[in-house]
Prior knowledge:
The complex is a heterodimer.
Chain A: H1 2-28, H2 30-67, E1 70-74, H3 80-91, E2 96-102, H4 104-114, H5 119-128, E3 136-141, H6 146-154, H7 157-160, E4 163-166, H8 172-214, H9 216-224, H10 229-269, H11 276-282, H12 284-311
Antiparallel strand pairs in A: 1-3, 1-4, 2-3
Helix pairs in contact in A: 1-2, 1-10, 2-8, 2-10, 8-12, 10-12
Chain B: E1 2-12, E2 15-25, E3 30-34, H1 41-48, E4 56-61, E5 64-65, H2 74-78, E6 81-85, H3 96-105, H4 111-124, H5 140-152, E7 158-162, H6 170-185, E8 189-194, H7 197-203, E9 206-211, E10 214-219
Parallel strand pairs in B: 3-8, 3-9, 6-7, 7-8
Antiparallel strand pairs in B: 1-2, 1-4, 4-5, 9-10
Amino acid sequence: xxxxxxxxxxxxxxxxxxxxxxxxxxxxxxxxxxxxxxxxxxxxxxxxxxxxxxxxxxxxxxxxxxxxxxxxxxxxxxxxxxxxxxxxxxxxxxxxxxxxxxxxxxxxxxxxxxxxxxxxxxxxxxxxxxxxxxxxxxxxxxxxxxxxxxxxxxxxxxxxxxxxxxxxxxxxxxxxxxxxxxxxxxxxxxxxxxxxxxxxxxxxxxxxxxxxxxxxxxxxxxxxxxxxxxxxxxxxxxxxxxxxxxxxxxxxxxxxxxxxxxxxxxxxxxxxxxxxxxxxxxxxxxxxxxxxxxxxxxxxxxxxxxxxxxxxx
Amino acid sequence: xxxxxxxxxxxxxxxxxxxxxxxxxxxxxxxxxxxxxxxxxxxxxxxxxxxxxxxxxxxxxxxxxxxxxxxxxxxxxxxxxxxxxxxxxxxxxxxxxxxxxxxxxxxxxxxxxxxxxxxxxxxxxxxxxxxxxxxxxxxxxxxxxxxxxxxxxxxxxxxxxxxxxxxxxxxxxxxxxxxxxxxxxxxxxxxxxxxxxxxxxxxxxxxxxxxxxxxxxxxxxxxxxx
Lengths: 313, 226
């Protein structure tokens, strides 16, 4: 029991000393520590700019996609039963995300509203005595290319007699273009992210390597006076933790400051109320967590690799 | 205490550090290893502290077979040996006190003991007043005395000094040798690698002469002869 207590005491003591040495090193190598944190902040800012651009691109493309829908204009004599049948038939299609039925009366009201300044149109409508419009079914799908499937699905003889016209056909080319553009943007985004990941790794690796290289003589001296590898590596691991914590905290402080000025402009572009501040607020744990763990792991690996040579003494 | 049996160190075909060294140093001896530059003195020191491994032969220090020592145990061996280098090898970002206490901290000594023993050892080498200075604020002689204090503080049975006076003037040289002699009087084995003729002649202790990596003479009360 006494032996176990001694081991625990010694380990706690070693941990305390490692933390003490790391804080001492940070303070006494203030210039180098500041430079390391500064480079990490620059790297994290670059990653976050890319991340932000990716989010905005996705948001913009989804907004564009949301604007696209297919409208099935039914004939005036279509009964509610026919309509229910069509809706039931379409509702099983997984591509459809939303279906809205505009009744005959709503179509008429909307028409009247649109032409309220045109007395000729309104008097022509009066002369008809009855509502000439049929109901309209507005359909939204997951992806623009899904519209083809919907069109094929309703292109059957029994529905030909019910559907007057479909508003989508004329937009087919435009939808394909949007689809192509969004696909390309996603590919470019992925490529840029991969490139940034490699650059970030190289920046962190070299920053830490320079930091360790400047202390190579000290590391070998520590080794010669009997310090174990763990006792030498320990302070660098604590420093890596502090570097990661400081760089992520400062980076997110700067990001929120920048978003404070950027969001008013975004709210003009995104009418759905999307702001990057809201996005960061709702994903803060994930974003800071991923970035903190990534910096920490990269710093650990880099310092481990950089120190291997010095620890061989 | 220290035993070398047929120790050879070959760096490359045209660079041989040591050739077939057989040596036995008893506890409490003060042994000078002499020879011109490049004769293998530093190689011998590096082998003794397991900084390098011999190509052939066996090295035993106390209970340690240094030849077969696993790398994880090297720090424990080094904590049993005090080493003094020509270039002092002090940690520049640590104060005199911290440099000395570091040797105890890595060995897991208790803080209370460290706080008590370090000032005492620094008093022995005459640096009690300068313990909060950094190495760059000290003279060469003072820096070497810090290195001696660091090597002494964990009460090692052996102190290995590799050209400890190489960077010092004659006055500081005498002071350092006097300190080493005092340490030896308390029973610590001293192994002094040097090419300083005056020191060796004045010591009148055992002298081992190296030439071309080989022992050419081993005299109980010898002089510097090349």
